[in-house]
Each structure stands twice: as C-alpha cells, then as structure tokens.
Amino acid sequence: MKITKFPVALGCMGLTGTWNPAEMNAGREQRAIAAFEAALAAGITLYDHADIYGGGTCEEVFKACLKAVPGAREEIQIATKGGIRSGHYNLSAPYLRECIERSLSRMGIEYIDIYQIHRPDPFTHPAETAHALNAALREGKILSVGVSNYYPEQVRALQRYLDVPIVSNQIAISLGRLDPIYEGLDSGNGRVGDGTLDQCMALGMTPLAYSPLGGGALARGEAKTERGQKIQEHLQTLAEKLNHTPTQVALGWLLSHPAGIIPLVGSANPEHIREAAAAADLKLEREDWFALWTTAWGRNVP
Q1: pTM greater than 0.90
Q2: 132-147 confidence digits (pLDDT tens)
Q3: Which CATH class is domain 9-221+258-281?
Q4: Cα separation of 209 and 172, whole Å?
C-alpha cells in the first residue's frame, strides 16, 4: 500500500498533553480536536499513534477527533503501535491480539491502516508475532504491517514469517541523529551507523521519522552542545537563503533524502503544525543538503 498522500505526518504522542489518564478533561479533548482540525486543513493525511501514548488517552481522544470532523476517517490513514508493557516488551500472539482489539475500540474504528510493532521483543520468536499479525490481516482488522525501532536483521527475521511485505520502519532520525544514514563503524563522532535507510530503499519500506527536530531542540534553538549550536546556526543561515523557517529547513533536509522519509511532527499546537506542513514542498539542492550533513556530522566528506 502507498503510505499517505502528504509528505509530512502528525505524531500523536502529545495529542492530549498528558501521560496520566486521570488528568484528561474537556479542555484537553478540545486541544486535541483543534490540533486534528489544523492538521487536516494543512493537508496531513497520516496520523501516528501508539497504545501507550498518554496512557491510552491519545487513542481515546482520537475517537472524539474523528467524530468532530464527519467523513475524516475515509480521507486519512491511521497508524498505531503495540507491544510495550510496563517494564517489558510483549509480542506474544495473545497479547498482540489484545493490543489490536483495544486500539480499535479506543479509537472507535473498524480497521487500522498501518499496525506497527513498537519495539523488538527478544523473548518472543518472530514467527509467533507474525502469526498474530497474519490473523489480523486476514480478519481485516489491520490493512498493513510496519515496525518501529527495528534494525535490519530484526526486520528480516519478522518478514520471513509474514504474509505481506513490511511497509514501514519508524525510526529516530534528524540532523541530531544521523545513525540510520550510515552502515558500519565510521558514522562520525564515535557512533555506529545502523543501515536502516538503506534497507528501507532496498525493500521499498517507508521510513517514518520520529523526533525529526531532535525532540524539538532544532526548532526551539535550545542546543546544549557545540555541535548542536553549529547545526542551528547553519539552519538559520539556510532558512534566510530559502525564505523558510529553520524548522522547515530541518524537515526539508529529511524530505530531500531519496528514501522517501516521512517526518512525524509531534506537536498539538496548530501554528506549529501548519509551519511543519508548509515544509512539504521544500527539497534541498545537493550542495545545501551535503553542507547541512557535514555540519551535523562534524567532519567533511572524504
């Protein structure tokens, strides 16, 4: 399946603004609805959830969001994740089936467009995980399968037992975290590249980028390291050249990568959502892309 008609998506982790279900109230619900309406108006068509976000409140409030905009469900894709419990991961077939059923119930929907495994579970064989996913696919409860925080061999292990291709891998990538671009020992600044973007291109998987602004630091200009300050200064310079904001340039850097990265913008602020969505058409020239890369990498291209 083709993921989203729009190159920027909304990450719904902060939709309610709380991780404590006891703090949910009418004001938080209206906050979520306003964010959803702003995202829709900006053209965003993919909405990324997880069953643990907000202690379940982010999925629950999305039912109110869909009710507030009649017909919206048919125009968007909903992704969600499962498999994390307090203190451990659980990708056993019985628990995964429970996760899927609870997500469907909380959001008040009949199917999930992209169901993603939140993190690998070293205590469960991938064949068992795939068994639950294959059953949910046959029953029409999920339409496709994705993963999150998976390294290439973990993807390959799960794919062996699935009836359908894995369509996405949700990973942390930004100018502040370059590891997915590399493979091998020399990723700069002592980090090891993991090769996830190369695998996405090889297998036709879509990379969904969470924390595309480095947890917001690139957008707020709150760098705590010399490297971060250099990145922000470069973003500001390039933003002035391109007549965009530094946030949009940081997102445009991801959008320009040939892997087809979809940044997940994790904000419930309508103004911030509109700003991020406006980066959709910003594709950097090769020279500008490499200049930002080397600034973030901390070294010149050999």
Answers
A1: yes
A2: 999 999 999 999 999 9
A3: alpha beta
A4: 6
